[in-house]
Amino acid sequence: MDQDTPAEAEARGPLDRERLGAELADRAGLSRIEVVDEIDSTNTELSRLAAAEPDSWGDLAVLVAEKQTSGHGRLHRPWASPAGSSLAVSILLRPHNASGRPLPTLGYSWFSPLAALALREALAQVAGIESALKWPNDVVVDGLKISGILAHLAPGAHGEPPAVVLGTGVNVSLSEDELPVPTATSASLAAGRPVDRTELLVRYLEDFSRRYRAFCAVDGNADAPLEGGRSLLSRVQDATITLGRRVRVELPGGRRLEGRATGLDRHGALQVVEDGGERHAVSAGDVVHLRPADGGYA
Ligand code: BT5
């Protein structure tokens, strides 16, 4: 491999912990932010901390790791996050509305797309990259996966409804030969220049926190206008490239559907119309985008 340029070497340096400290937490409304060198998985560790020390790990507490030894995706699939060239970050959510009542758990399915929208905005601002959402939890650039998002439930504090641990992995400065799978890309590859990991993380956290608070203010209703603008449902629909495409959906039990993805319902489920006209609302599964005439991957 060629030697890194100084800008590339700088981009591969450690995260700037000074910029990821109290001032960011204040500005973005985070309850705390911790950066560790190495952990098995930020999602697993944050779930442990949420259960063991609920009073110290409140709403919008953030855990970031330079390196994960056992990062995972859905169904325990491995997630590769090489030290120094990716982001591994988890955010704890204990959502309450403006009157202080816990959010209806029906709204919880929107936290992953909310994170994906925030990351999309951060990628645009920091790296000038146009990305899109691929249902259910990927952020892609030209059909290649730059980020995966994984949300799971954690115990609620003091008898409250469950908390959510929302983990995001982002490929930032991986080179072509470091990509873990052929369907992946990285921010620096897509931008054609080095991308600052700390800056990307700061923007992501600021943007996520703002959107999350706006969503909580409407009690987790995906149809309600956010911050005086469009609803979360309509923003997510617009950003999701799966919609309008022919898809194959691999359902959790091993069953498959093939047809056209037509939209999202108000709980974030993917609406699919099979070739015979049968309609389905899919709340969990893996999607393969099909080209009109073949069974290929896009
Ligand atoms: C995901 O799962 O895409 C969710 C990944 C979430 C990772 C974050 S990192 C911080 C937090 N801590 C964790 O332990 N997890 C979260 P899924 O849709 O199941 O996709 C997993 C698949 O993506 C794997 O089977 C590989 O094919 C592929 N993959 C693995 N590493 C990748 C990478 N770095 N870039 C692109 N694709 C990857």
Walk me through what this model shows:
- The strands form two sheets. A seven-stranded mixed beta sheet has the order 1-2-3-7-6-5-4, sandwiched between helices. A five-stranded antiparallel beta sheet has the order 11-10-9-8-12, with no helix packed on it.
- Residues 294-298 have low confidence and may be disordered.
- It has 298 residues and is of the alpha+beta class.
- A hairpin with a 4-residue loop joins strand 10 and strand 11.
- Helix content is 25%, strand content 27%.
- The protein has helices at 6-11, 22-28, 42-52, 111-127, 187-191, 197-217, 232-239, and strands at 32-39, 61-68, 86-93, 132-134, 138-141, 144-154, 163-171, 246-250, 256-264, 270-274, 279-282, 286-290.
- The structure holds biotinyl-5-AMP.
- The site of biotinyl-5-AMP has 28 residues, from helix 3, strand 3, strand 6 and strand 7.
